[in-house]
Amino acid sequence: MTLDQIAPGKRAEIVAVDWDALAPDEAKRLRALGLDEGARVAVAHRGIFLGADPMAIILGRTTIAIRSAHARAMQVKHP
Question: What is the block-wise mean pLDDT of the chain (79 residues), using blocks of 10 residues?
């Protein structure tokens, strides 16, 4: 399952990221924010635009907005 498939309010752990599916600068930014293997996240909400972009992801005490395309590159599991 990928992060973009998680329902709002649900928690998950990132188990793998397809870094090759992302532009190098985007991958670097996501890693710097802590969105990497082992991170425990929750989906706060999704945008209202076509494709539900952006998604609000809670990581620790921080809320991060990411694109659905970024979330599709992240394999997750439910705790």
Answer: 92 96 94 94 85 87 92 91
